[in-house]
Amino acid sequence: MPRAVISDLSIVFTFLRQGQGWSQAALGEAAGISPNLINDYERGRKTLLRERLEHLIAYMGLPPEAIDATLAELAANRARARAPRDSPDAPSGTARRVEALAIRLGAAMTGFARAMLRELTVEGEALHARQRAGLLWDRLKRHTSAERRPLVQKGRKYRTWALCERIAAESIRQAPNHPKEALELAELALLIAERLPGERTWSLRLQGYAWAHVSNARRVCNDLPGAEAAMVRARKLWEAGEPGDPGLLNKAWLPGLESALRRDQRRFQEALKRINEALVLDTGELRGQILLNRSAIYQILGDPEGSAVALSEATPLIDPRREPRLAFGVRFNHLVDLCQLGRFEEAAPRLTGVRSLAERSGEELDLTRVLWLEGKIAAGLGKAEEALSAFEQARGVFRRRDLTFVYGLVSLELAVLLLEEGRTSDVKTLAEEMLQIFRTQRIEREALAALRLFCDAARRETATADLARRLVRFLHRAQYDPELRFTDPEKGSE
User: Fold this and answer.
1) What CATH superfamily classification does 8-83+98-140 receive?
2) How many other CB atoms sit within 10 Å of the CB of residue 143?
3) pTM above 0.70?
């Protein structure tokens, strides 16, 4: 029986499969074909067409360009192996010198070509891998959390760096409103990282990345000790995997997530340090979010100026068409900072844009927050009646939605206006209503103590607009820092 001729595409297939750490059995399982067929392709017993090869290497997370790069390497190796001869017997001295020079030049050109090809294809490879990860996630998310883990454990096709990254990003997206699901997703990303085939150091790097997201998910689940333990592990694995890092992950994620943890641990200076580190490392995609985190830290520290600067820089980085909800949050918080700084005339012209974003979302709470903001600006510009009406409408919605904290804030801002008009009896009624609501709702101890102080003063009709303003500033910070204390102004400042 004549020996099968192995084509260049078959050689390329074998090289790419082995180089990526895939066995014939594993690739067959991922592609849904027999390992024997893969063996036939590689041995030349079955004809391997270019289209079929592109289809098969896609399961390894490789783009079509990887075939061309490998073919170029194969051609260069063959060129170096050809020795010019003067006769059929032996090469002359000149021919040997030409051969040596050709080998050296070939090696240099091959190295240059390899570097260029890697540079040109790495972005294409990453894009292709991420596109495939999106398709894989679409399959996984149809299953319950309990069903996803066995699928990842059994299915080799799910064990890719890009899918780990995609699921980690989904964990971040779910964290604000669904912390338990965020933790399940982060742990799924970690499972993938721990089973990543191929280079061991790259797996360690990816595990460090996944552990950082586990830390973040534990943080939003109010498990700060667990979050700290996960972050320590994330740092250790991330650094151990640095030699194998192909540069596919945004290095800003780790310090960015650590800054959020340090903020919740009340280690604010460390949080700012990590934020600055993240800004230096970021490739551009996370800069807006990082600046938002910096703004939150400044707000906790009672620095609306620093917060306003961060939000001003973040605003043009967030596309309202792609991320309307985030764009609304940035612009809304920026105007709140301007109000705290007394820059009402600067804030007023920007209200229209913020309201437009809120109307696009159609969310009642977003529209109510804009109404509250309109009341703030109206009060700052001396339009008391307009501000009173806005505050009354807004606090009604916040009360109905059981948003006790923000209800307290807008009620105190309403109290400022009433006290400035000398309507102490109305303030007394307002304070009694607030106290009754606070007693039935869970609210942080320090914030509740501060609000009781105001209510006691209102009962005695000794509450002042200055006390109400001080409480507004305190509550604005306390919503981010529950342990912040408010001191009776007769004994000192908060």
Assistant:
1) lambda repressor-like DNA-binding domains (1.10.260.40)
2) 12
3) no
